[in-house]
Amino acid sequence: MIKFFEKDPYAPIQYVYDVEDILYKGKSDFQEIMVIKNPHFGNMLVLDGVVQITERDEFLYHEMLVHVVMHAHPEPRKVVVIGGGDGGAVREVLKHKSVEKVYFIEIDEEVIKVSKKFFPSVAGGVDDRRVEIKCMDGAEFVKNRDGDIDAVIVDSTDIIGFAKSLFTVEFFKSVKDSLTDDGMFVTLSESLHFHKDMVIEVQEAMKLIFPIVDLYTAPLATYAGNWWTFSAASKKHNLRDIKTEYRIDTKYYNDEIHRQAFLPPKVYEKLMQRKLQW
Amino acid sequence: MIKFFEKDPYAPIQYVYDVEDILYKGKSDFQEIMVIKNPHFGNMLVLDGVVQITERDEFLYHEMLVHVVMHAHPEPRKVVVIGGGDGGAVREVLKHKSVEKVYFIEIDEEVIKVSKKFFPSVAGGVDDRRVEIKCMDGAEFVKNRDGDIDAVIVDSTDIIGFAKSLFTVEFFKSVKDSLTDDGMFVTLSESLHFHKDMVIEVQEAMKLIFPIVDLYTAPLATYAGNWWTFSAASKKHNLRDIKTEYRIDTKYYNDEIHRQAFLPPKVYEKLMQRKLQW
Known about the structure:
The structure is a homodimer. The first copy, chain A, is an alpha/beta fold. Chain A has two domains: 2-54, Spermidine synthase, tetramerisation domain (Spermidine Synthase, Chain: A, domain 2, Roll), CATH 2.30.140; 58-272, Rossmann fold (3-Layer(aba) Sandwich). Chain A has helices spanning 58-72, 88-94, 109-118, 120-123, 138-142, 169-178, 196-207, 255-260, 265-272, and strands at residues 2-5, 14-19, 21-27, 32-38, 42-47, 50-54, 78-83, 101-105, 131-134, 149-155, 179-191, 212-219, 227-234. Chain A has a seven-stranded mixed sheet with strand order 9-8-7-10-11-13-12. In chain A, strand 5 (42-47) and strand 6 (50-54) form a beta hairpin. The longest helix of chain A is centred in the first third of the chain and has 15 residues, at 58-72. Chain A is globular, with a radius of gyration of 18 Å. Chain A starts with a strand and ends in a 6-residue tail after the last helix. Strand 2 (14-19) of chain A pairs antiparallel with strand 2 of chain B.
């Protein structure tokens, strides 16, 4: 059997996958793009040697990334998705009927092209008439907007690497200014097992800018450390409350999961005081 | 760098660890026992090629295995720990002051010896005067008891393999008969990511015997599939409620985690109807 050894220098466990076939291998201006086929996970998108999505379980990540803030907002209409070139986050955003416009900001056009070809069930939504694709730096896009955005969703590669402009205080400030008063922001913030300090740093930086900042997790088998965190922020709404009146069709996310995903208060406090040891 | 490739034929991702040193390698009557040293996780106990515990994160598993049922019981006094030769479960049980007696039933004496030597902070409690060690099959031990046990805690190796006698309806019946009316039972039941059918089967089998059966999870980085499940059962107490009046000293488990760890009702129902897809 041919093997793929994931290349994640920051993970103390290396993940190895069986490879049935290499469906695509290329180099864009930004990164190496690869699509491999695995007997369990189906097609897998790999960027610079790190697994981004798999056909089998991408819904779990995309649902948890998108639907928490989209339900904490009373009626999200204009949404910005930064990264997520595979289209999965956009697909989930479009499930919300209130949505009128999605700015889909992916720096690497090649990822969109490859995803359309090898992950049609994921990337299918990007051609929706409500979606405007811009191949540019997400940090640039949110600068100097009019405060007309309801939700900014960051679906980048790992914090280490060229995505790091999306994890600065300056970026968080631009995001806040781009949002309406009901506005919401969410970004991945790595694994609670393997990158606890990074999680704390993202939370601390967001708290310098937003009055309400929170942290929720989801168990994701194909991301090193699995216990994946999402850092979310808002200007006035409690992120743990569901504000939308409608419910959407999902495989995993529901109102119970929404509430349960957040770190309990005492555990959150212990984490932020750097008293959680593992 | 020397590498250890975990040998778990049922996991679609293979985990690879750096090896600083091989501290022990031997063969008992039951299995191959190995202790390796990893730069991140410290000493790691490996049985038949599968990681059992690591110095760094064993507390997370042991706390979640032990403290949920031990707090759902109003006053646990006599406890049976089956497996868990490393001693971590026994250590956690002994934190409960109400405990007068722990029957520690480990089939493989060698695992206890090796753990005492290489994991003193884990195995330290097994010499406590309240602990009675019996090197025998746990399924045999619980047969024909007098209904005097408050909690049975199974900390075995994977369900596949020689531990399978601990996952039969017959065993669950013996456990129930060994318990007082307040009695509690908990066992590991593999990963919700990778072994969903096995989780369902354990739950179904336990429901044939116990009036109250429930399922909770914990995120464990060093077990393949990570999203680890624990199947718990009782004769009359709701497992989600905390009944003990005291609280104990833990690194992760607390009353918030106790409640949050259980699968939410709608998600649990979807799982058991085999409608959760991933």
